[in-house]
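Full entry
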Amino acid sequence: MNCLQFAQECGSVVLTCRKFGVAKSSFYRWKALYREKGEAGLINRKPCPENLLLRIPAPTEEKVLHLRRTYHFGPDRIAWYLERYHQIKISGKGVYYVLKRHGLNRLPQNCRKRSIPTYKRYQMQVPGHHIQLDVKFLTFIDKRGRKLKRYQYTAIDDATRIRALKIYPRHTQENAIRFVNYVIEKFPFRLHTIRTDNGHEFQAKFHWR
């Protein structure tokens, strides 16, 4: 029994709305629709009709569905593929609406990719346990307009993120050794491990030191 039938039998709109949990305005709107169109007037309708002029063309929809069914591409990749190889511009959101309208917005269970864990930086909570040492190439212009190369040596403690840096005119093992001595002097804790990229400035003399 619906609320209109119940109201007709009990004769009370207030009691009907309280029993079915609806507002009086909704009840009277349904009553007017039922009186005008019968049961067809009570069927839920879209708030606004679909504008066919805004729909994606059928050939484009076919390409979207083909890429989804065949290659299981996501919305953004489908949009990129269509623009790259078919010169068809469509947004990722537009592709998603096409897939949703056809019930393909979710991939089959066996095709869903497991979430790939993001890269997690190595981190030791003990200061000085792990020091990262690197060299950055710098270029300056002197007063005469000539290019000058300089080399920035940088050391970063993994736990505290304290860093030290010095700039040298040459890229040598001797300067790398001088820089490590500088770091040992400046850092307020003992150094346990130094990690480098095995460049030519971090070879035999440096390791011996």
Observations:
- The helical segments are 3-10, 13-20, 24-37, 58-71, 75-86, 92-101, 173-186, 204-208.
- The chain has three domains: 3-42, 52-111, 131-208.
- Residues 52-111 form one domain.
- The first strand starts at residue 131 and ends at 141.
